[in-house]
Amino acid sequence: MVMSAMREKTKVVLFIALIAFVGFIFFDWGMQKGQSGSRGDAGVIGEVNGREIPYEDYRRTRQEVIAEFEARTGRSPEYADFDTIEEETWISLIRESLLQAEIQKYGIVVTDAEIMEVLRRNPPEIIRSLPDFADSAGQFDPVRYSQALANPAFNWIPVENYLRATMPRDKLQNYVGLNARVTNAEVRERFQALNEMVKVRYVRASPTEIELEEGEVTEDELLAYYNDHPDDFLAGEQAILEYVRIPKTPTAEDTADARADLEDIRAQILEGADFANTASAWSDDPSAARGGDLGFIARGDMTPEFEDVAFSTPVGEISEVFQTPFGLHILKVEEREDGDEGERVHVRHLMIRLEASNATLREVERRMDDFLFSLEEEIDFAAAAAAAGLEVQRTEPFEKVGIIPGIGLLRGAQRFAFSQTPGTPFRSSRARTTKASTRSVSRNGSRPDRSRSRRSAIGSRRSWERRGAARGPASGSRRR
After folding, report:
1. Residue 391 to residue 406: CA distance in whole angstroms
2. Which pLDDT value is given to residue 384?
3. Closest to 80 (Cα-Cα) out of 463, 355, 478, 429
4. Among 22, 27, 87, 217, which is least packed, fewest CB within 10 Å?
5. Which contacts of 209-212 are long-range, i.e. CB under 8 A and separated by 24 or more positions?
6. Whose CA is closest to 78, among 364, 416, 404?
7. CB atoms < 10 A from the CB of 266, how many?
8. How far apart are CA 16 and CA 62, in angstroms?
9. Residue 275, Cβ neighbours under 10 Å: how many?
10. Residue 326 is inside which H or E element, if any?
11. What is the C-alpha to C-alpha distance for residues 7 and 16, in angstroms, rounded to an integer?
12. pLDDT for 26 beyond 50
């Protein structure tokens, strides 16, 4: 492959990808803004190729990862999110460390003259987008920017620090780009990889599709096969969790409060507020960026509840508040048309998502706290669940990697299951559920009992071995 050949030709080509991701450089801006604050714990918490990672770097990077998460999702991280946040933090720190090592290796430095040249001739977009240099239309104003450059009282230190941190990355990227070479043979290989086509004929056959006749595989044969092929039935370390689930669903009171809010918004629109502007400000739907505009819709495009209201509301009118599986809505029909494909309506809408209130979430937390407290009092897990009106559920055996059956991908629970002794309670807060759980563990290399499903699998394999010759190999043709 082309990328493989390029990696062999230059060791630093990998940093092309890294440069695009390494960042987390932020600075305060303006004449009146300075940098203050005391340094925290200066202890070292990690090391990459001999380069130490101070606690302060970790703390700052983690804060920026959390800020980016909140900006992307519109919410604060919950318990289940912190595994991903920790992982992203460490990946960023490792990338930064590797990048700095390459910058030092090639002796890349930035001079004062280079910084001044960039500021005068090509200020970065992050600087051009600052409101300090914007005109009345919000666009970059070169005149205001030039005046700031000539003003000795303007605080340029944060900008200088930013450029000293980012410009070496730009230089390294340019170095990598100039030293990367692609030969004609590599281009040909890449073209063939992207454009080569194959046509294959095959016969699909699976042991699971073979129906065994009664008595075709005897119990003795099953046992003999099981004993003769012990490695086929070895399982890795597995755990089983017992858990209870308390949904974080909105209550009837939460729904009533959301409906009252939307009724107030509808009243403002009826009194003259612009629907598009109001939808942009209040709607939880992605269409808020377009003023709630969904364009023309036909029958079958939306949920039945939405369509019933959309096609029965007169043009120019605002609907009553109605509910769909996505939340509470009001809509406005902009226009209506009849065509070859039937009736269509042009709709704007405003949606309020139904979510559990803080009071509801606190009640969920209280119930789970009470449940955990009862476990600490050495009450049996099942008895404590019954007393709390909760149903105990049990997972299938699972290994360290992958999802937990019935629960999903919850890394905290996975770590708990393979690090604690059976009977230990665990608590997790997720977007929709809260759980407490206990588990049992089977260790590496264990051979499970021959259950009905295991016997079925062995029997299918035995039958497959007997009939395999009759099936014949798959055949195929290939063309370039």
Report:
1. 14
2. 85
3. 429
4. 87
5. 210/460, 210/463, 210/464, 210/467, 212/459, 212/460, 212/463
6. 364
7. 19
8. 23
9. 22
10. none
11. 11
12. no
> For residues 425 and 212, what is the distance between their CA atoms, to the nearest angstrom?
44
Contact 336, 346 (CB under 8 A): yes
Per-residue confidence at 342, pLDDT binned at 50, 70, 90? confident
Phi, psi dihedral angles at 338 (to 5 degrees): -115, 130
Burial of 85 (0-12, 13-18, 19+ CB in 10 A): middle
Between CA 223 and CA 394 the distance in angstroms is 29
Backbone angles phi, psi at 426, to 5 degrees: -135, 145
- The whole-angstrom separation of Cα 269 and Cα 276 is 10
CA atoms 231, 236, 242, 245: torsion sign: negative
User: Pairing between strand 293-298 and 342-352?
Assistant: antiparallel
| Nearest in space to 433 (alpha carbons), one of 244, 254, 251 | 244
d(CA 53, CA 305): 55
> Between the CA atoms of 168, 171, 173 and 175, what dihedral angle is there, to the nearest 10 degrees?
-130
Residue-wise pLDDT for 204-254, tens only, equals 887 777 777 766 788 888 899 989 988 888 877 888 888 888 888 899 999
- For 30, the enclosing helix (H) or strand (E) is none
H or E element, residue 116: helix 112-121
Distance, CA of 225 to CA of 235 (rounded, Å): 17
Q: Helical H runs in 122-251?
A: 125-128, 142-149, 157-179, 184-195, 219-228
Hunting for tokens 């030969």 — which residue is that? 183
Structure tokens given for 124 = 């970065």
Instruction: Summarize the confidence of residues 390-400 as an average pLDDT.
Output: 88
- Alpha-carbon distance of 420 to 411, in angstroms, equals 14
Angle, helices 275-282/252-270, rounded to nearest 10 degrees: 150
Q: Of 27-31, 218-222, 410-414, 427-431, where does the model show the most confidence? A: 218-222
61: nearest Cα among 88, 80, 34: 88
Distance CA 262, CA 325 (A): 16
Given a cut of 90, is residue 270 above it in pLDDT?
yes
| Total Cβ atoms within 10 A of residue 323 | 16
Which residue, among 57, 62, 68, has the nearest Cα to 97 in the 3D structure? 57
Residues in the chain: 480
Q: Which of 296-300, 327-331, 429-433, 444-448 has the highest mean pLDDT?
A: 327-331
pLDDT of 453: 39
277, 283 contact by CB (below 8 A): no
